[in-house]
Amino acid sequence: LAKEGGGHAQFITGADRMQMVVICRTMAPLSGNLFSQVSSPGKVLSLYPSNEYEVLPNGSEAHWEVVERILFIYAKLNPGIAYVQGMNEIVGPIYYTFATDPNSQWKEHAEADTFFCFTNLMSENRDNFIKSLDDSQCGITCKMESVYSMLKDKDLELYLRMEEQNIKPQYFTFRWLTLLLSQEFLLPDVIRIWDTLFSDEDQFHFLILVCCAMLILIRDNLLVGDFIVNMRLLQDYPISDVHTILTKAKELQGNS
């Protein structure tokens, strides 16, 4: 799927397809049971289906094929943006939520429901994936800088420390913001974060609050660590309790 007009990445690559497979491995075949432990692509899976390489019955298809079709149709209907690497990370949790619905009648429509929700979400989030808008007021660069602007207001000492070490927001917030934190936490935790995020009146401002909260919660480590140690912390976020993160974000929101 070539992206027309330039973009951050142009095709569904082998790596993208593998990321889709990683999410979908946590789901049994369309008629099976779910495994209890699931993970986001950014985390290591602890459980795999024992029959993951079995040939599917005639007329059946793998979950990742459904996800790939959703992305393909979206790209064909939206040639101005087409497919950009990272969209698979956003559609994955949405499809997982619908495809694992305990109500079989709802589950049957997982593909259509996912496409509808993904399209609506991308209508609000698409500017992050359009390279020509990167430096505009609605582009990803402005949003990354907003994280540091908020950090400066909420925790000046930490902000100055990161500036001193020349840790630029694009080193880590690009992934946090464009992928809506889907690579930073286990899949159930991503869904928990999204549930809070999408219920907020200003959901993308709240995402910036969450990112700022994530920084403040590890401030003690960041203040004593050097550049390499701090970059490792930010690239592999150490706190797994999303309730703590969301509580801190709400606290920051209340103090705004």
Overview of this protein structure:
- This protein is mostly helical.
- The protein folds into two domains: 14-129, no CATH class; 134-254, Ypt/Rab-GAP domain of gyp1p, domain 3 (Cyclin A, domain 1, Orthogonal Bundle), CATH 1.10.472.
- It contains 13 helices and no strands.
- The longest helix has 16 residues, at 110-125.
- Residues 1-7, 28-42 and 44-50 have low confidence and may be disordered.
Condensed summary:
The protein is mainly alpha-helical and 256 residues long. The chain has helices at residues 14-25, 63-77, 87-99, 104-107, 110-125, 140-154, 156-164, 173-178, 187-199, 203-217, 219-224, 227-235, 242-254.
Order of helices and strands: HHHHHHHHHHHHH
Count the E strands.
0
What is the beta-strand fraction? under 5%
The CATH architecture of the largest domain comes to Orthogonal Bundle
CATH superfamily of the largest domain: Ypt/Rab-GAP domain of gyp1p, domain 3
* Intertermini distance: 42 Å
Percent in helix? 55-70%
Under CATH at level 1, the class of the largest domain stands as: Mainly Alpha
What is the count of helical runs?
Answer: 13
Query: What summary fits the major beta sheet?
Result: none
Structural class designation: mainly alpha
pLDDT < 50 stretches: 1-7, 28-42, 44-50
**What's the shape?**
globular
Quote the CATH topology of the largest domain: Cyclin A, domain 1
> How big is the Rg?
19 Å
How many domains? The number is: 2
